[in-house]
Amino acid sequence: MADNTPTRYEQLADDMAQAIREGLLKSGDRLPSVRQTCQRRGVSPSTVFQAYGLLEARGIIEARARSGYYVRSQKRPSRALSEPAVPRSEATEVAVSALAFDLLETTRDPQVVPLGSAFPAPHLFPLDELARAGAREMRKLLPEQVTTALTVGDEGLRQALRRRYALQGVPLAPDELVIANGAMEALNLCLQAVTSPGDIVVVESPTFYAALQALERLHLRAVEVATDPSEGVVLEDLARLVGEHDVAACWFMPNLQNPLGALMPVARKRALVDLLAARSIPLIEDDVYGELYADVRRPPPAKAFDQTGNVLHCASFSKCLAPGYRVGWAAAGRHAAQVLRLKMMTSLSTSIPSQLAIAGYLAQGGYDRHLRQLREALSTEQRRVRRLIERHFPAGTRVTLPAGGYFLWLELPEAVNALELHHRALAIGVSTAPGVLFSADRRFVHHLRLNVGHPDDPRIDAAVRSLGQIAEAMTRDAKPARAHA
Fold first, then answer.
1. Distance from C-alpha of 332 to C-alpha of 324, rounded to nearest angstrom
2. How far is CA 131 from the centre of its chain?
3. CA angle in degrees (0–180, nearest 5) for 330-335-340
4. What pTM was estimated for this model as a whole?
5. How high does pLDDT run on average in the chain?
6. Phi first, then psi: what are they for 125, rounded to 5°?
7. What is the per-residue pLDDT across 464-479, written as a single tens digit (0 to 9) for each?
8. How far from chain centre, in Å, is Cα 253?
9. Cross-strand bridge partners of residue 68
10. Which CATH superfamily is domain 369-484 in?
11. Where are the domains of the chain?
């Protein structure tokens, strides 16, 4: 297991980012020169260049030719999507599976540009190293381990996960972890553990369509809560909803919410946990994107503030290390025993070879280095595609400013029906994720989620330009109709 202690350049970058957040360095200020920083901090020029490079990759500072490094403007562009949607407060029966299945079908075709996909590009992951680690571990596997690891999971992997939780300030009880077939199984098991058919579950607005599919499968009803594009769930609205409804559970993504990319501030996470604990409402925390932050340090999960075992924290390696290996887990708090029983009654076990491969890879110490490279690649591509959207999409388009991850959420002009745009784009070989997928009542008619996790794909620029041209044409076509009306 790799040591997660920050390197000298990461610590220097963290200190400078904190100074910028606290206003000690303001927008447009010039950073100290490399020589000055070396003298003040007692570090090498290489350390300073690495720290400044990390801050530049995160979009916090910018280099100016023959001038040095400067604090970038943190002001939101005028076209940024910054206001939360206002959802209906009534409970809604969920029926989104058919549309979701259609979308997943389009992402399987390698000839289609995967702007609608849920995964980053495969070349971003250390698949060869994982394969070698898996082969080594399988050669060392004792016959009895094949059965002792059933249901509970491989002990080496469980220990590695507990250590990573501890580094985030989240000590886990030895029996709290349940290894699952990806985060989706973990989330579904947790949801099933704390609800009964007909119950009400509060979800974000917009929310990840797989959460809606899970509610649909278990015959649960959804109530959507307003979700700020930058800071996540609006707690005032949540407090009102849990007062109006008999809520069985909440399913939220406090870190890098899909599709918005919102990152809930630490104080709001603590308040969220306290609000739900006071009413004994379980919080199912989906944290699959937590490692893909664009800042210097990993944001803590809501689980870090749980004092009562009320938070069921779920994550996986699918989005940050090993897509296709289907290794996830739940740290299910006081509900762990019930989640484990449900695991035994459904899939019984998660693939032992997959668990061993990941445990072996973690033990060799390259995971955090891989994560740093992945975050930098995704952060750079996110900013690049955002500029393409601003250049090619029609006036009035607004787009989120995510705090990490690889999704952008667009609000298109009212004349643009995103589902129709999706079908037109498919006809030219480009997939998208239309907004109606992300709400129980299909309310995000003019919204679109785009996957920007495919750096080095030469088709992306033309695909984004084509999407913008289709949206522009739809806007033009609607103008005569409105004038005639």
1. 23
2. 25
3. 60
4. 0.84
5. 90
6. -110, 150
7. 999 999 999 999 988 6
8. 8
9. 64
10. Aspartate Aminotransferase, domain 1 (3.90.1150.10)
11. 8-71, 125-364, 369-484
Nearest to 248 by CA among 193, 183, 181, 200: 200
Angle CA 316–322–323, to nearest 5: 85
* Residue that is written with structure tokens 């399987």 in the block: 108
Distance CA 126, CA 106 (A): 26
Name residue 339's amino acid.
Answer: V
Q: What share of the chain is helix, strand, coil (3-state, %, to 5)?
A: 45, 15, 40
- To 10 degrees, the CA torsion angle through 286, 378, 123, 463? 100
What is the longest distance spanned by two Cα atoms in the chain? 77
| DSSP three-state, residue 186 | helix
Q: How many CB atoms lie within 10 A of CB 262?
A: 26
3-state secondary structure of 200: strand
Note the pLDDT tens digit of each residue in 344-374: 999 999 999 999 999 999 999 999 999 999 9
Nearest to 15 by CA among 55, 42, 70, 58: 55
The class (CATH top level) of 125-364 is: alpha beta
Report the CATH fold assignment for 8-71.
Arc Repressor Mutant, subunit A (1.10.10)
CA-CA distance, 102 to 268, in Å (whole number)? 36
Neighbours of 484 (CB within 10 A): 6
Beta bridge partners of 404: 293
Cα 96 to Cα 73: distance, rounded to the nearest angstrom: 40
Q: Are 187 and 346 in contact (CB under 8 A)?
A: no
Please state, in angstroms and rounded to a whole number, the distance separating the CA atoms of residues 319 and 317: 6
